Amino acid sequence: MSRETGWRRMAPADLPAVLRIAAVVHPSYPEDEAVFAERLRLAGEGCHVLEGEGEGGALLGYLVSHPWPAGEIPALNSRLGAVPDGQANWYLHDLAVLPEGRGAGAGGRIVAELARRLGQAGYRSLSLVAVNGSTSFWRRQGFAVVAEPALAGKLATYDEAACYMRRDLKD
């Protein structure tokens, strides 16, 4: 049975817990704390954590996202330096929820809320790299696989099943 949970904006103090969650959910795709810290600094409005029940509940998940050109993906475990200006696409760098936080739709809720806010702000699409057999989850969130031959090399750094996906946002 899933516990009641809620999303809130990520804070720098959350980074140690985010790294612990990443190590459990994405052990094959390790990233340095500096990568998460930079994305939080560059696009804090796209970084959220999932709290467990009760005041000060343990973190059960996180979402890290930021503006990025459509049809491109940042290299795994790399800093961005800056977020390019004038982007119409928002990149979902990582969504991770611990097993004890799953089953109540928390992942779908944060993606829907982010899509709603970004659509209102004028963004035209969301994109991501699907890993760990998550393609069906992302399809349920409105994403579709997009063949981008230029991404083959970067996708291969994840695994052979990784794929680039995009969701168009409605006004």
Structure description:
By secondary structure, the chain is an alpha+beta fold. The protein is built from five helices and seven strands, in the order βααβββαβαβαβ. It has a seven-stranded mixed sheet, sandwiched between helices. Strand 2 and strand 3 form a beta hairpin. The longest helix has 15 residues, at 106-120. The radius of gyration is 15 Å and the shape is globular.
Write the layout of secondary structure elements.
Elements: E1 6-9, H1 15-25, H2 33-42, E2 47-51, E3 59-67, E4 89-97, H3 106-120, E5 125-130, H4 135-140, E6 144-145, H5 152-156, E7 163-168
Parallel strand pairs: 4-5
Antiparallel strand pairs: 1-2, 2-3, 3-4, 5-7, 6-7
Percent in helix: 25-40%
Rounded radius of gyration (Å):
15 Å
Number of helices: 5
Shape: globular
Uncertain spans: none
Main pleated-sheet profile = 7 strands, mixed
CA-to-CA gap between the ends?
36 Å
Give a short synopsis of this structure.
The protein has 171 residues and is α+β, with helices and mostly antiparallel strands. It has helices spanning 15-25, 33-42, 106-120, 135-140, 152-156; strands at residues 6-9, 47-51, 59-67, 89-97, 125-130, 144-145, 163-168.
